[in-house]
From TrEMBL:
Classification via Gene3D superfamilies: 3.40.630.30
Name of the molecule in the record: GNAT family N-acetyltransferase
Listed InterPro entries: Acyl_CoA_acyltransferase, GNAT_dom
Entry's Gene Ontology molecular function annotations: acyltransferase activity, transferring groups other than amino-acyl groups
Top-level taxonomy: Bacteria, Bacillati, Actinomycetota, Actinomycetes, Kitasatosporales
Organism whose genome encodes this protein: Actinacidiphila oryziradicis
Pfam assignment, any one: Acetyltransf_1
Length: 164
């Protein structure tokens, strides 16, 4: 499997594939964002946003950008604010349904963690949505239940973080 997987930075030609993956991942929720919002988040930090190719197809993506600890992107905003922070916020990680169960999310996470360390980030934060808190806990993220989140992230959303 190793030679069939390639993680690279997002390029302009990837957006149709990213938007399709994002829409299919969030079909049953209100979490899906417009293409312009996704692009804005990636443009805020191109060095920490990635596409995962599996057998020359886009199988997943990850968007992460600097954000102050305990803050997070507003899902209703199309244009992202650019922050200078030692905290890297993992805004979105999606693996296409037909590619799940192969450890690809863990590969993307590992790649992000290594990149974050090389760029001197101190922490990685995220908001676990759709019942994914267990996955993130298994990957060493700790819940911060004291952080109030807007309804737009879903009723079971949990702010989480870990040290790089």
């Amino acid at each position: 499997m190793g030679h069939d997987v390639h993680i690279r930075h997002v390029s302009d030609g990837d957006w149709s594939g990213i938007v399709a993956l994002e829409a299919s991942a969030y079909t049953d929720s209100a979490l899906s964002e417009e293409r312009a919002a996704l692009e804005s988040r990636a443009h805020a930090s191109p060095a920490t946003c990635f596409v995962l190719d599996f057998e020359q197809q886009i199988a997943g993506y990850l968007l992460a950008l600097p954000y102050p600890m305990f803050q997070y992107p507003d899902l209703s905003r199309m244009e992202e604010t650019i922050f200078h922070s030692r905290n890297l916020h993992l805004h979105d990680l999606v693996i296409g349904e037909s590619f799940r169960g192969r450890g690809l999310a863990k590969r993307l996470l590992h790649h992000l963690t290594v990149t974050a360390g090389s760029k001197m980030y101190e922490r990685i934060s995220l908001i676990a949505v759709g019942g994914s808190e267990t996955f993130w806990s298994a990957n060493e993220y700790k819940a911060h239940h004291e952080v109030a989140l807007p309804r737009s992230y879903g009723a079971d959303a949990v702010y989480m973080s870990k040290a790089v």
